[in-house]
Amino acid sequence: MKFNTKTIHGGQEHDPAYGAVMPPIYQTSTYAQSTPGGHKGYEYSRTHNPTRNALENAFASIENGNYGLAFGSGLAAIDAVIKLLKPGDEVISTNDLYGGSYRLFTKIFEGFGLKFHFIGMQNASNIESYINDNTKLIWVETPTNPMMNIIDIKAVSNIAKKHDVLLAVDNTFATPYLQVPLDLGADIVMHSATKYLGGHSDVVMGALIVKDKDLADRLYFIQNASGAVCGPQDSFLVLRGIKTLHVRMQRHCENGRAVAEFLVSHPNIEKVYWPGFEDHPNHDIAKEQMTDFGGMISFIPSGGDYEKAIKIVEKMKVFTLAESLGGVESLSGHPASMTHASIPKEEREKSGVVDSLIRLSVGIEDKDDLIADLKQAIG
Ligand SMILES: *Cc1c(COP(=O)(O)O)cnc(C)c1O
Description:
This protein is an alpha/beta fold and 379 residues long. 35% of the residues lie in helices and 15% in strands. Helix 2 (50-62) runs parallel beside helix 8, helix 3 (74-82) packs across helix 4 (99-109) and helix 9 packs parallel to helix 13 (367-378). The longest helix has 20 residues, at 245-264. The structure holds pyridoxal-5'-phosphate (PLP).
């Protein structure tokens, strides 16, 4: 089955009770048993729920995995992966990581005796010098947020395999429409399904997808034992979102290209970060591992400082100033004070997240309106 068919049919069957084409929202916590243990595969909704299962099957299908797991948020999904580890274990991660992931790693899990290294991975061979006997996991985000760096998943996976270390890829920005990390050798794919998979900014959810049965069983155990699951209503919404992922992504990419090209030719813009530019430092890898370049763009206004960036985001009208990304509507953000405020300024600026940086999630509106809005806001 091809991707554009999988988004609609992957892992789905019509409801066995009445043939409902969309899975019903099984709004129930528990299931009747005829005798202790005599049930139809469902006992309690933290463990299993038919609506959530339909979604989990869709997750597995679109990411070319064998097993999908849904969580109450992207961070809950990451939390479950880190719980595979034990005190003393070490994790190597990217240095311009999503702020919430950085906060979870440093403020929660360092307190449980785990050690995290945040390093530049644009050159994958950098990783090797941080690997030792305690290294158990490499955590990659690509494109990175908000600097739009590209990391070579296949190259990182070769290093991970050589040292018998798990590789997890946060595929929130790219989605499987653009890149399929499991096919490039990753062991775990993670999503904030809040973003492109849900696609309509109306639900918070996380996902994990794996191929390996043993790894899936360990993650299912954590999902049930820790309990950070999502409800059936939210599962229904994300399942519906996935059905249009391919058409939305196609338009996100088209509009993203138009906005990136507008910005780069604007005299009052100093720098535009978008992996589709031929002079982007990792453009060749982006071209190899992605089918297109997406709708996430960051830029710096000329001579920009904190005040200038704030003024621009305040002036935009079609772009809404808001946290999050990946919905049908265009959003703007100021990473230094919003998504990345939980990373210390010094750390932040080391990876390029300066006070004047603006991030755009380009939506699927008419591109002429988006460009006109940017024009009036930048001046
Ligand atoms: C939003 C986001 C997360 C966290 O997901 P939530 O659903 O907000 O918990 C993790 N990684 C990336 C890249 C994100 O954009």
